[in-house]
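Quick check before the chapter quiz. The format below is the same one you will see on the exam, so make sure you can read both the input and the output lines.
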Amino acid sequence: LEAARRELREETGLAGLFRALQGALDGVPAGLLGYEEHPAGSKGQHLNFVFVTEVADDAEVTPNHEFGAWRWVDRAELDDLPSPLNVRQFGYLALAARFG
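Here is the expected output.
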């Protein structure tokens, strides 16, 4: 979880509270939605772990240099984003996630 906290802070400037998700199995890290993997050439496999967290309603996003733009989206907007299917699928899971 420390890596997820660090990435959240470094990439968005946000601090979040990672809590267990409803229906999560024992031993699953708090907030873990899932992961995806794909070949990374000579490095083997590349794994992306996806977490959801609670942030304050008045928290301000401060994106780092990796982002040219960002915005919050609802499900209807997510349907139309030009992004890979697995990214949208994780977005759907995140929008439906409930904390236990």
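If your answer matched, good. Residues 21 and 99 are 4 Å apart (CA to CA).
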